[in-house]
Amino acid sequence: MKATELFLKGKNRNYSLILELINTLYFGDTKSVSPKEINDMVEKYGIPSEFNLSQSLMNQNEPYNLYLLGKGPKGDYHLFINSCIPVQPYGIEKQWLKHIIKNPKIKLFLEDETIAKIENLLADTDDIISGDTMVINRLCRQLDIIDEGLRHNFRLIAKAIAEDKGIEYSYITKNKTLLKNRRSIPFKLEYSMKEDQFYLISYSLDDNRPIKSLITGFRDIKLVELKDEQKISREDIEKSIEKKKASQPIVIKINNINNALERALFQFSCFEREVNYDTEDENIYYLSIFYYEFEKEEVLSRIFSLGRHAVIISPEEIKSEMIERLKILKDKYIPHNGNDKGGE
Predict the structure, then answer these.
(1) Does 341 score more than 60 pLDDT?
(2) Tens digit of each residue's pLDDT (9 = 90 or more) over 8-53
(3) More confident residue, 88 or 38
(4) Which CATH architecture has domain 148-243?
């Protein structure tokens, strides 16, 4: 019961909404909220309209007014008091945090001093995996150590994204080619469980196109202020990336033998994907993989690794391309008998 307490909707929805509302107004740049924004927040939390929570927040529901907000001259609402609400984590959240803080990759996001403080605060908390709350049957491959080079590159790239700056760098490709004096505008970081690797999607100022790069390939990164002619808005970068999105997802039919579905989801952990099940056969699933044109080779390679329990259904051109690749492999690795005359 303790493990599922966090997910009891009736227990924390109202409190969570009020916590978000007050802390957003207290810490945010905008110190007021409109009636529409209050209504939207109540709707977002799925609180039934018959509870009249919006009216209670706007002090229009006597005798159930909350008097947390005051109404301004323009009709917007602001906090009555200059105070926030401390976040009170649940026991189950502390257990999760205890487990997460042990992961070496936490060093990519937090300072050593912060990690030490959290470890000290959670000294008397059980790890969620160590007790009877949760059991992990198969562990993913994980980096044992985060070296300072990776930590430095990751944080510098994250800083560039947050501050809309460019980067200059050298890059070592998968075939060990060194590319010097490259420039790009970082857009977003992605993580693949399969490789236990972080990727950067950025807009190359050298090639004027979106590119995808392994974080471990970067060398000598430095932040640069973009010149006026180099400045591209995040919206324009996103549009250029969206233009590279394949017009159709690749749909594969998976016969869930030997955990084939689990392996497929693991293979495509860093891709947008969608799973549908067959209504007539409980072992058949359809996995749709959404990808960008510059990821096509990677997607096909991962599909190929799934073996005979995964079959491409659509689109036809991808299906045909995979068949041709299989024929080439067959001709290359299966010896032909010159005397073979065919037959049934």
Answers:
(1) no
(2) 444 578 888 888 899 888 888 888 999 999 999 999 888 888 888 8
(3) 38
(4) Roll (2.30)
Query: In this structure, which CATH number among 3.30.70, 3.30.750, 3.30.420, 3.30.450 belongs to the domain 250-333?
Result: 3.30.70
Task: State the pTM of this model.
Answer: 0.61
Q: d(Cα 166, Cα 156) in Å, to the nearest integer?
A: 10
**pLDDT (0 to 100) of residue 132:** 58
Closest by Cα among 188, 187, 156, 151 to 169: 156
Residues 26, 69 contacting (CB under 8 angstroms): no
**Contacts of 25-28 spanning 24+ positions with Cβ under 8 A:** 25/78, 25/79, 26/79, 26/82, 26/83, 26/84, 27/84
**What are the tens digits of pLDDT across the range 284-326?**
899 898 988 888 888 888 888 888 888 888 888 888 888 888 8
Range list of H helices, 229-344? 234-243, 260-267, 296-305, 316-333
Res 333: pLDDT: 72
Among residues 304, 339, 338, 342, which one has the least CA distance to residue 321? Answer: 304
Q: Which two tokens stand for residue 188?
A: 């977003």
Sign of CA dihedral 312, 314, 316, 318: negative
Contact 305, 267 (CB under 8 A): yes
- Cis omega (within 30 of 0) on the bond before 210? no
What angle do the packed helices 316-333 and 296-305 form, to 10 degrees? 60
* Phi, psi angles (nearest 5°) of residue 339: -90, 5
**Residue 112 host element (H or E):** helix 112-121
Alpha carbons 95 and 86: distance in angstroms, whole number? 19
The overall average pLDDT reported for the chain is: 82
pLDDT of 116 strictly over 90: yes
Q: Where are the domains of the chain?
A: 2-79, 148-243, 250-333
CA atoms 108, 226, 181, 223: torsion sign: negative
DSSP-derived letter for residue 339 is: T
